[in-house]
Design goal:
mainly alpha, 3 helices, about 0% strand, globular
């Protein structure tokens, strides 16, 4: 199963993030818990075009 790690410094500053950004973090964490590597690579929500 894929793993996602956050540095302690991220969690210390997470409270100051805007609500939509916090929601995106929670959504990404959920996807890493539920999806396989193949599904993660196929998921358009984790890849933003710039």
């Amino acid at each position: 199963m894929p793993q996602l790690a956050f540095a302690n410094t991220f969690w210390q500053s997470c409270d100051v993030l805007a609500k939509p950004v916090k929601a995106g973090v929670r959504k990404a964490m959920e996807k890493f818990q539920l999806l396989t590597i193949v599904e993660l690579h196929a998921d358009k929500g984790l890849r933003r075009s710039r």
